[in-house]
Amino acid sequence: SETLNLAVIGGDGIGPEVVAEGLKVLDAVTDTKVERTEYDLGARRWHATGETLPDSVLEELRGHDAILLGAIGDPSVPSGVLERNLLLRLRFELDHYINLRPAKLYPGTSSPLDLARVAPDGIDFVVVREGTEGPYTGNGGALRVGTPQELATEVSVNTRFGAERAVRDAFARAQARDRKKLTLVHKHNVLTHAGHLWRRTVEEVGAEFPDVHTDYTHVDAATIYLATDPGRFDVIVTDNLFGDIITDLAAAVTGGIGLAASGNINPDRTAPSMFEPVHGSAPDIAGKGIADPTAAILSVALLLAHVGQDDAARRIESAVAGDLAERGDAQRSTAEIGDAIATRA
Ligand code: IPM
Ligand code: MN
Q1: H runs (alpha helix) in 51-176
Q2: Reduced to 3 states, what is the DSSP secondary structure of residue 332?
Q3: CB 67, CB 49: distance < 8 Å
Q4: At residue 326, what are phi and psi to the nearest 5 degrees?
Q5: pLDDT over 70 (residue 21)
Q6: Measured in angstroms, how far is the CA atom of residue 317 from the centroid of ligand 1?
Q7: In the annotation, is 97 catalytic?
Q8: pLDDT recorded at residue 178
Q9: What does DSSP say about strands 261-265 and 273-277: parallel, antiparallel, or unpaired?
Q10: What is the pLDDT, as a whole number, of residue 11?
């Protein structure tokens, strides 16, 4: 059909390396004309100009169909500067209220778990992480910094509106899956105010989805289950911070952070959604051509599914599955993995 108008933000560290492989595979599977615009954002730009995300760039990004992002963050930049003013600002400004993080164990993938014992039926779940609220809003402050009386707050913001739209999206996803199970992960025994809001929201929205089975797990217990019985999960809905933490663990048990893809999704399509590997910029291996591009490639599959190219998305997923099944311990370069998957796709 028409052109896919893509914004590409390679970002920091291994970001540009893995994004290049994602684009290689994209080219291999799509018949649509892909127009790419690269945006130079991240540590380099901050050092050169002091800019993180100029308003004019943000406005330009709004004009694209989707954004593909590599990774943001560098040890040479004070912690939080790029994270908050670039990555989180994009998520907030573009209203990416669903941070979608699939956790799927592909055959042949190695896991630190004793899979035969703890996940005999495999692992295949998806985390719907709320993306615009929680402790990520920057609502907090510090007093008397550097004194023995120092005080710092980091307030978790939870609105009914925000929880409800995440919960409704998660229910819809659960309904479309075989097991139709939705687990709310929170900590309502301690975080009583927000916990109550989330629980009630799940209960009330759940009435619209009578065939979805719901349950609840405290976040600390969820980490135990992720290590001892991950097959129990189908769709998890949770707040921004719990979602951040458990999706790293979910990645670790399904083959590692090199495979974990994510979508920062604006389901209302009032702005472009943004797709990125869950991993960071990995400065220790940047420039060596050894980063695993699989997470970025799977993020391209999520991107294609979002823009309605389901066939192309499925072709990428099967190509990745095929590659993983035969991967073994072979040491391949970033480009070799990208080539292999592109050839299969
Ligand atoms: C992630 C990252 C980000 C987050 C950081 C870099 C702001 O850890 O995408 O999971 O906490 O969301
Ligand atoms: Mn994270």
Answers
A1: 55-62, 81-82, 89-93, 115-118, 160-175
A2: coil
A3: no
A4: -110, 5
A5: yes
A6: 24
A7: no
A8: 98
A9: antiparallel
A10: 98
Name the nearest CA neighbour of 302 among 339, 336, 277, 269. 277
Which entry of 40, 220, 229, 311 is annotated as an active-site residue?
Answer: 220
310 flagged as catalytic: no
In this structure, the strands spanning 273-277 and 66-71 are parallel
pLDDT of residue 1: 54
**E strands in 195-241:** 213-218, 235-238
pLDDT of residue 2: 82
The mean pLDDT of 171-187, rounded to a whole number, is 98
Q: Binding-site residues for substrate, please?
A: 91, 101, 129, 220
What is the bridge-based pairing of β-strands 235-238 and 181-186? Answer: parallel
ipTM: 0.99
- What residues flank ion ligand 2 with Cβ within 5 A? 244
Q: Is 121 a catalytic residue?
A: no
Q: Please state whether 73 falls in left (phi above 0), alpha (psi between -120 and 50) or beta.
A: left
Please report where in the chains the tokens 């090199």 appear, as a residue: 258
**Distance in angstroms (rounded) separating the CA atoms of residues 278 and 262:** 6
The model's pLDDT over 47-78, given as tens digits with 9 standing for 90+, comes to 999 999 999 999 999 999 999 999 999 999 99
Kindly provide the b/e burial profile for residues 70-104, where b requires at least 16 CB atoms within 10 angstroms of the residue's own CB. bbbbbeebeeeebbeebbbbbbbbbbbbbbbbbbb
Angle at 321 between CA 242 and CA 27, to 5 degrees: 95
**Residue 73 near ligand 1, beta carbon < 6 Å:** yes
Q: Worst-scoring range by mean pLDDT, 58-72, 219-233, 319-333?
A: 319-333
pTM for this prediction: 0.97
Ligand 1 pocket mutation, candidates 41, 67, 87, criterion most atoms within 8 A of CB:
87
Cα–Cα dist 260/255, whole Å: 8
Q: Which residues are annotated as a binding site?
A: 91, 101, 129, 220, 244, 248, 280-292
Could you give phi then psi for residue 128, rounded to 5 degrees? -100, 100
Closest-CA residue to 168 (of 214, 106, 227): 214
Over residues 137-149, the pLDDT tens digits come to 999 999 999 999 9
Over residues 165-184, the mean pLDDT reads 98
Out of 180, 181, 225, 248, which one is annotated catalytic? 248
